[in-house]
From TrEMBL:
BP GO annotations: NAD+ biosynthetic process
InterPro entries noted in UniProt: Cyt_trans-like, NadD/NMNAT, Rossmann-like_a/b/a_fold
Record-listed E.C. numbers: 2.7.7.18
Function (record text): Catalyzes the reversible adenylation of nicotinate mononucleotide (NaMN) to nicotinic acid adenine dinucleotide (NaAD).
One Gene Ontology molecular-function label: nicotinate-nucleotide adenylyltransferase activity
PANTHER family with a match to the protein in the record: NICOTINATE-NUCLEOTIDE ADENYLYLTRANSFERASE-RELATED, PHOSPHOPANTETHEINE ADENYLYLTRANSFERASE
Sorted UniProt keywords: ATP-binding, NAD, Nucleotide-binding, Nucleotidyltransferase, Pyridine nucleotide biosynthesis, Transferase
Family from the record: Belongs to the NadD family.
Taxon lineage: Bacteria, Bacillati, Actinomycetota, Actinomycetes, Actinomycetales
Species per Swiss-Prot/TrEMBL record: Actinotignum urinale
Residue ranges constituting the Cytidyltransferase-like domain according to the UniProt record: 31-191
Catalysed transformations (reactions): nicotinate beta-D-ribonucleotide + ATP + H(+) = deamido-NAD(+) + diphosphate
This protein's name: Probable nicotinate-nucleotide adenylyltransferase
Amino acid sequence: MSAKVIVPSEDVDTSVQLPVNVTNRRPRIGVMGGTFDPIHHGHLVAASEVQHLFHLDEVIFVPTGISSFKQDRDVTLPEHRYLMAVIATASNTRFSVSRVDIDRPGVTYTVDTLKDLSRMHPEAELFFITGADVLPQILSWKDSGDLWELATFIGVTRPGHAIDVSSLPKGTTKIVEVPAMAISSTDIRERVLRGAPIWYLVPDDVVQHIRKYGLYDVSGKIGKLEK
């Protein structure tokens, strides 16, 4: 399985500027925001491929607190989504998980995520990793004009899935094709609900966490952590 940087339109910069001297460059940190309800192998493969292609020193997974886009459905409690992300990323030394969004009161906005991480990593160059289908919506996000100053945006998509990002400022966005992005958190939740297996779609220990707390099952529980 391999990924590649593709050219979705002439207005999008897809070149990968690799450091000439890795000892003298700024740290390069990927920021992978998402609901992660649940996190799955598609997320992990995408993060790994982007880390490799863009020579990132670290990828920080940032589970959303209260999503501004998903207030119309029940979302699993933040602590579960955080713990599943920690479990899923534990074996990769270049992956970490941040509580910055779930610990911030109120609705989660990407601009706040990037500002907080910029303060925590003032010397770093940030790369925000998201699904490419989200990119055309960025101009409608809170303080969208500030986003381009805070990070380079990397849109991850499945092969052959065209994305029109011609409306975005030139040089701010890169597109990467990753086959494993065909996996969907929505599909995983639906499989649990109907009793279908989710092995090999999510890490084994995440499967066990979902089973232990009855996440996404027919009872409708969204889970409570044991005291």
